[in-house]
What does this fold into?
Amino acid sequence: MEKHTLVIFMKLEDELQQEFIDEFEARGVRVILPKKVKTEESIVRLVLENNADMVLAGGEPWNKKTLSACRGTLKMISKFGVGFDNIDIEAAKENGVIVTNTPGQNANAVAEMAMAMILGLRRKLKWYDNMMQEDRWGREFAYELTGKTVGLVGFGNIAKHLARMLGGFGCEIIAYDVFFDERTAAELGVKRATLDELFEKSDVISLHCPLNDETRDLVRKDTIAKMKDGVWIINTSRGGTLNVYDLKEALDSGKVAGAGLDVHPVEPVKEGYILKGMDNVILSPHAATTTREAMYNMTRYSFVHLKEYLDGKEITNRLTV
It folds into this structure.
């Protein structure tokens, strides 16, 4: 029987992953859980020294250097999560490595985070909480969401879940996506818009797009200028899609009324992060997916893809095609 070794680079809680590890070990798979991996060299060393043909990947770099160094040994990368910008897909193909991800498994969790940020910002929950914590008492006008126009940049699984939630508020929902799903949009009452139309018409803009050459710094000084005065911006997609320096300038001027960011250009953020300490900004540490339900679902489907590889079956959610 062919022997297999799996290295789990993605740090998961034992209670979420143990049942899957037990199942793999019962099948004779050697499972390795390294404590901490920081460098490209340590990634390659773990794969080669253990003759690992499978990895469950987190955010570590699978680039041309690491993938070519693992050529002939590594056969399968099961990416925990949806985003895979830390994996060079073309290099994976060149080096015979199958790559998968887990689309849709965290969609509801991320949509709920975006919804929470929209409501929290517009109803000034952070501002009110800060007042109460400081033993102050006062009120300030907040803003209802009902009847407002919400623009979704990207109309994939997460944006569709958010659109369903927004439907209960009687919002006009518009969306932009290169591959626009007309059927689902019709079901949810979402109208198709160009990017410029979305920027010009939306009271709230929520980003749900991947990070690539077209979307990098998508929200920046000149695109913010096209938006309504007092727009609210939410980003639960990728940090690089929004220029935080241009956003800070727009927040200071009042052009942007408030912003909620779960993702940031450099993670973890460094001391003195430009958006800290603002009453009209909600920051979270790339934690939108961190619900029990979403983490379990992503763990389960990460192992489903690994089992498909072990069993020689057609592999679902394959990115290297």
In short: The chain has twelve helices and twelve strands. The longest strand covers residues 256-261. Residues 107-283 form a domain with the Rossmann fold fold (CATH 3.40.50.720).
